Amino acid sequence: MGSTADDGRDGYLAFVESNQHRLLRAAFLICGNRHQAEDLLQDALLKLALRWASVRDGDPAAYVRAILYRDAVSWWRRRRREWLSAAPPERAAPDRDGALRLTLHDALGTLPPRQRAVLVLRYYEDLTEVATAEALGVTVGTVKSQCHLALRRLREVAPELTGEDRPGRGANGVEVNQ
């Protein structure tokens, strides 16, 4: 009798060990804060543990991702506030990759929660439109429209992410030898 409980526990622990880093990165990209990402993931893994027997034969990673994104959106709704600062935030040093990463992070921060979640699922997690819709509990049409709006917004707030207008690149974003 005890062996089935141990089998479920071992399977759960194996899943957590093999997926926690990838899921933590996704949580961080969604919320933009390492501590909040850790909290989100911990809550999601607790919810998974409570439902492990019914989820383990399906796709537990998809189940956890859905919890992460829904809990992040719920958190944003509860905590939506402006934070005032006496001084403007510091600007990044001009190193190319680091500056682009920071620009992308800042640009993602300007997006509404649903648009940000759609972009992370589609382009970071590399999910299909259908899988993204299932994870967020919306229609495929909503995923398409939110993705379109989010990408348009990113182009407006951070045109340097398109590859155009970067040093050594032509108008179409292709590397130019100088």
Q: Care to describe what's here?
A:
Residues 166-178 have low confidence and may be disordered. This protein has 8 helices and no strands. The protein starts with a helix and ends in a 21-residue tail after the last helix. The protein is mostly helical.
Helix and strand layout, with pairings?
Elements: H1 2-31, H2 34-50, H3 52-55, H4 60-79, H5 96-109, H6 113-124, H7 129-136, H8 140-157
Number of helical segments with 4 or more residues = 8
Topology, number of strands: 0
Q: Major β-sheet, in short?
A: none
Principal-axes geometry comes out as: globular
State the end-to-end distance. 72 Å
Structural class: mainly alpha
Strand content: under 5%
* Average of pLDDT: 81
| Computed Rg | 19 Å
Any descriptors?
178 residues; mainly alpha; 8 helices; 0% strand
What's the quick description here?
It contains 8 helices and no strands.
